[in-house]
Amino acid sequence: MQEAFQRRRRNALTGISVLLLLSFLLAACGGGSSTSSTSTSSSSSSSSGGNTSSGGVVNLTFWSWVPNLDKSIALFNKTHPNIHVSWNSVPSGANGTYAKMFTAIKAGNAPDLGQVEYQFLPTFEATGGLTDLSQYGASSLKDQFVPWTWNQVTQGSAIYAIPEDSGPMAMYYRADLFQKYNIPVPKTWDDYAAAAQKLHQADPNVYITDFPPKEAGQFIGYIWQAGGRWFNINGQSWQVNINDTASKKVTDFWQGLLDKKLVTTDPDFSQGWYNDLQTGRNATWISAVWGANTIMSNAAQTSGKWKVAPMPQWSSSNSVAGNWGGSTTVVFKDSKHPKEAAEFASWLNTNTDSVNGMVTGAQIYPALQSALNGSSDAATQKFYSGQDISQVFKDASNQVDVKFQWGPTMSDVFTSVGDQFSDAVAGKQTLSAALDKVQNDTVQGMKKQGFSVNS
Q: Which of 33, 136, 266, 391 has a CA positioned 20 to 30 A from the CA of residue 372?
């Protein structure tokens, strides 16, 4: 369960059917009752849409894949006797939960609340499937969250979700290997390329990192840090700039490492990739905060050999991080009790006991500012050479650019990136040319789905 949750948070997405989304865009949205659920209470479980029992209790249903959520929900139910939330533990991933959410909204039997990753919020917004929470006082929560996460859930004055967790990025590195070969820890991307060359010259079996061609989530994290802006809203139209100057800078950098054969290109989160973490074949992994547990769980024998440093910078005078992962709590449009649902969404992600419960029970990295002040636990510090890595990620969380915007068809974008980059890694084209094709695929796909697009 926990490993599956970690994999969900890295956003290894598979596609939502274009036909499903298009049919939704052309259909009216509805609300109603949910499918079978796993309730957090033995008392009467609710049907979705939020029914009211004869005792005046509002019943709400929440679809989420976060493990061990029952403790937070039980606490809410205990402290809010007039509201009862039932938790449906649903599968993660676009082909699982999201496809079911779109189908349920169209059919009129969506839950009251749901878990939605940041990159899919614009898709739900485009379908009109979400409640604007500003009318229920959500704007008062703004200053409690990391700034970039709040920007992700708003459009103008509208607030479409409450931030839950995030995935600020940093560089995990094999401190023993850098020390062995007397290589400074890279502070810039130029340093990183130089380290790649020196490591591979010192030991031809060692590579600076892996470049998995189908891992669009990680690559977009690089773009985010570099200042790439793949999507923007211009009036009533979408502006698409997937092959902008900043993004081409990133592709050219990685093309250089590929051309010199200084990186591996294995699928990440595969057995071979885990083995490379164990053996030191890959000396770094630029990943999100949740990656700490991935390494600890799958390369246990390397305890004491790793450390964490900020992401390499494009300029030595900068301190900018990317983000890879994170999700929110939404209220679906036709909940019969949106006020109570909004109250739960806000409480879940701001109540200290609730958030701490999700941190310990699901190992989320919270978007709530006040929850970022803790230290790494003793086991984590021991694994990472005695380092308290929490400060690195706290700093990174506040260095993620607030202006980054996801588009409304991200599942299709992720698929296109994976397909085109796979061809690039196979030598059929460059990463730069691949990005041009992703730009074209995205613009044409959005137009076919009825979006107004400028590019």
A: 136
